[in-house]
């Protein structure tokens, strides 16, 4: 049984349809890369899987994962970069989902979990720092550590490398790859960086205008397909880079 | 200085106003941190205008002002919150629409019935004399409820303030907490309006949070420091008002503004 399965899923805002008739299965252990131009419904799909939006039609079926046990890294614009909070407060807040309504404090396990995930992300020494004083790359790691506190199974990452320099990008990609391969966490990542999509991921979902699916399948197949050709050429032309993000 | 303060407290209405006021100032500061960070600062302002409208209508109808104002303002808080959820961009305009309409209604109703009398003036700019015994008990219970709920839900309030989508995705009932915050804000605004006045109560909500954010680096310190600064400024404002004979609400906002400037400078200097 797939971990998450979208069955003829349609998601829409009041006026417009953002995802149409989507049928995909995400298996446990997958690294799915979601690509497509701006406004094609990638973030909307992520919100649908998180349960932040109710499907207009179709359904999302969860396998061996509770909808509340999904780790989420929002698209950059959604979070306030100047928020006064310590790194520790932010990471720890990832554990909040397990709390009952009158659960006033974080438990010892919560704190151990947060510490462990900060170590995995290599940000243990930032614990007392203020979130708003960190660099973009450091902030992404903090948010990723928070996401890890919420899940051991499924991570949804919405454009995690936006605004990072090439080195920080490569580092973040290798961290995500490590989580997928070593911690056995299923990853769904929205990215505009198609070259990465092809190297680290095993599956690709390419969305087109109005949230239609242009391609869904194995990464190797995608590389051969004609849909990727335009995207890939553009990617190389824009960034002039090949395999830099391979660590 | 000490003599001055003990002289102030020898007036029972003054000490009553100070005690109630400090509790309201604490609540306003706590809620203010979340409202400011969620970009809902204008809600406090909007609610106070609605409160003014409701109170004027209540007076015109010879009803108890707070008994009418509290439910009306709570309902307005729900509406304003929904508006801001639905259309983030248009919400400030929507708040302005609602608040000016409520203000206009209040002014028209009063001028048609009793004329703009002293009561209305005191709702506009606040009055420490406006507190009846009933008001004092009501204010104390509201303040207590706000403080206790804030402590109980502190971690969830942080999570929702920092990233509402994430909190909701992990199963937090964000709608419930948003409604809770709106309700508590509405109660605080209505109670605080008596001392601070319609035009000035939002200062009590916004200033302490902004002042604390100049110098504090974590959410917890922002929350603690903003309550401290709010209480201190309230007290200093009352002393100022007593010595200079200026209206309490305006004096309190003035001390808050002064504190903001001081900590703004400190923040800038220590950042270098
Ligand atoms: N809150 C909203 N209300 C109404 N329409 C929205 C909302 N958010 C997105 N849309 C619309 O839904 C469509 C899909 O948006 P979405 O954010 O999912 O795109 P995206 O693929 O993530 O784009 P990007 O690459 O720019 O992040 C767009 O046409 C957008 O205008
Ligand atoms: Mg997006």
Distance between the termini of chain A: 32 Å
Secondary-structure-based class of chain B equals: mainly alpha
Number of strand segments of chain B: 0
Largest sheet of chain A: 6 strands, mixed
Largest interface (CB within 8 Å) is between:
A-B, 35 and 25 residues
Ligand set:
adenosine-5'-triphosphate, magnesium ion
The helix/strand order of chain B is: HHHHHHHHHHHHH
Mean pLDDT score of chain B = 87
Q: Taking all residues together, what is the mean pLDDT of chain A?
A: 85
Q: Count of helices of chain A?
A: 8
Describe the model.
The complex is a heterodimer of chains A (247) and B (272). Chain A is of the alpha/beta class. Chain A has eight helices and nine strands. In chain A, the strands form two sheets. Chain A has a six-stranded mixed beta sheet with strand order 5-6-7-3-8-9, sandwiched between helices. In chain A, strand 8 (203-207) and strand 9 form a beta hairpin. The longest helix of chain A is centred in the last third of the chain and has 17 residues, at 166-182. Chain B has 272 residues and is an all-alpha fold. Chain B has one domain (2-265): ABC transporter involved in vitamin B12 uptake, BtuC, CATH 1.10.3470. In chain B, helix 2 packs antiparallel against helix 10, helix 2 crosses helix 11 (201-215) and helix 3 packs antiparallel against helix 11. The mean pLDDT of chain B is 87. The A-B interface holds A 47, 50-52, 67-68, 70, 72, 74, 78-80, 83-86, 88-90, 93-94, 96-97, 99, 102-106, 129-130, 133, 146-147, 150 and B 37, 151-152, 154-156, 158-159, 162-163, 165-172, 213, 216-220, 222. Residues 13, 16, 18, 36, 38-44, 75 of chain A line the site of adenosine-5'-triphosphate. The site of magnesium ion has 4 residues of chain A, from helix 1.
Briefly summarize what is shown.
The complex is a heterodimer of chains A (247) and B (272). With 247 residues, chain A is α/β, with parallel strands linked by helices. Chain A is 35% helix and 23% strand.
